[in-house]
Amino acid sequence: MIKPIITILFYISIFFNSNLMCDENNKELKIGLLAPFSGVYKNLGESLLLSTQLALSELNNKKIIIIPRDSGSNDKEKLNIAIQEIISSGAKIIIGPPDSEDFEEIKKYKDTIFISLSNKESKIENNIISIGISLESQIKTIEDFIIKQKKKKTIIMYPKNDYTKFIDERIKLTKLKNYKIFKYNPDPKVLTGEIEKLTNYSQRKRNLRSRIAILEDKDDEASKRELLRLEQKYTLGKVNFDSVIIIDFGNSLKSVLASLVFSDVNEEDVLFTTVNQWFDESIFYENSVKSLYYPSIDFANFKKHNNKYYKTFQLYPNEITILAYDALGLIYYVWNKNNKINSINDFFLKEKIKGKIGSFNFNEKKVTQELKIYKAENKKFKEF
User: Fold this and answer.
1) Identical fold at 2-133+299-369 and 135-199+239-296?
2) How many CB atoms neighbour CB 358 within 10 A?
3) How distant is the alpha carbon of residue 373 from its chain centre?
4) What is the distance between the alpha carbons of residues 248 and 164, in angstroms, rounded to a whole number?
5) Are 72 and 63 in contact (CB under 8 A)?
6) Rounded Cα distance, 192 and 209, in Å
């Protein structure tokens, strides 16, 4: 635990001293960094700072000055003090905060631009641009994939929790023509029963028993072969959908997948998709589904960033730190293009921006990412 704390203090010292030494040059690009260097999320703060340092070293421009400040963890007072210190140091643009819960606070600083790493909102609103992998971008990518796979009946599944209303609003934007929404209880004890009803499991099981009973009374070779085949099955009859979109993560996602498999949903008939999992390798070992598809950032770039991060700092990065890397690149691109950044309008770019995560666009006051579809299969992530 001592090494990460020393590392943070060391880099804060470097950035802060560089800022003081170069303060007289009015052509500098000063960028604040709001990150939780204290509290329960301090490891995330360290990771964001070091990823920003990687981007800064690659840009190799001494006119870029990073001003990092501790925003704390769910601490409004510390957040405001940090913002005020950054602004007083001459920065008009800030990377952070990583959490959308702080948006109401940062809206007060109308003359300051915030490049947030949150994925909750794709809209460019007031003085905030969120470059996190938005649910809107993920759903759009999945929709395109399902349509290309010629699937006609989709179930969109997500849990009943604090984010249900947020997901409801995003689902309204879908362009799928024939879909149904299924909201489930995240409690595994309740979940299995709910999915059994969704898949008509009991009736399909009765269908199998009835057919086996009929075949047992027959003596012809065709009936014997069919009986042998049915004795290897758990149910008889297909479910009333050919694709699922599961908007869930971690153990809750794995419970849903396990319940679908338990209910004998055949992967040959149903396409299994979910949202961005940040290449979580535990899917390989705890997932009951053999082929699971989901949208995500560029996997090759993700690996390269993580490998370089580890080689440089001897630490493993938090997965979202690649967004901090791209945030700095985006700011530098706009500043270098215009020789200045006056307002948030400077970020309404017509061209695509290519970053480590892939390409993203700024259209209709929204940030949308062009994501790729990956398949988790045979303990590997494969681009589809």
Assistant:
1) yes
2) 20
3) 13
4) 11
5) no
6) 21
Peptide bond into 97 cis (omega under 30): yes
The sign of the dihedral angle between the CA atoms of 69, 71, 73, 77 is positive
Which two three-digit tokens encode residue 231?
Answer: 């004795």
pLDDT recorded at residue 26 = 52
Say which residue the tokens 């303060």 belong to. Answer: 23
Closest Cα to residue 258, out of 229, 290, 293? 290
What pTM was estimated for this model as a whole? 0.85
CB atoms within 10 A of CB 110: 10
Output the CA angle 184-185-188, nearest 5 degrees: 115
pLDDT at position 20: 40
The count of other CB atoms within 10 Å of the CB of residue 55 is 23
What residue ranges of the chain have pLDDT lower than 70?
A: 1-26, 284, 286-287
The residue to which tokens 């970020």 are assigned: 347
3-class secondary-structure state, position 277 = coil
Distance CA 227, CA 241 (A): 26
Concatenate the DSSP letters of all residues of 2-57 into one string.
Answer: HHHHHHHHHHHHHHHHHHHHTTT-TT-EEEEEEE--SSTTHHHHHHHHHHHHHHHH
Domain boundaries, the chain: 2-133+299-369, 135-199+239-296
Distance CA 321, CA 45 (A): 9
- DSSP letter at 347 equals G
In sequence order, what are the residues at sequence separation of 6 or more whose Cβ sits closer than 8 angstroms to the Cβ of residue 5? none
| CATH match for 2-133+299-369 among 1.50.40.10, 3.40.30.10, 3.40.50.2300, 3.40.190.10 | 3.40.50.2300
Residue count of the chain, please give it. 384
Q: State phi, psi for 291 to the nearest 5 degrees.
A: -130, 110
Bridge-based pairing state of the strands 154-159 and 179-184: parallel
Q: Which value, in Å, is the radius of gyration of the alpha carbons in the chain?
A: 25
According to CATH, the topology of domain 135-199+239-296 is Rossmann fold (3.40.50)
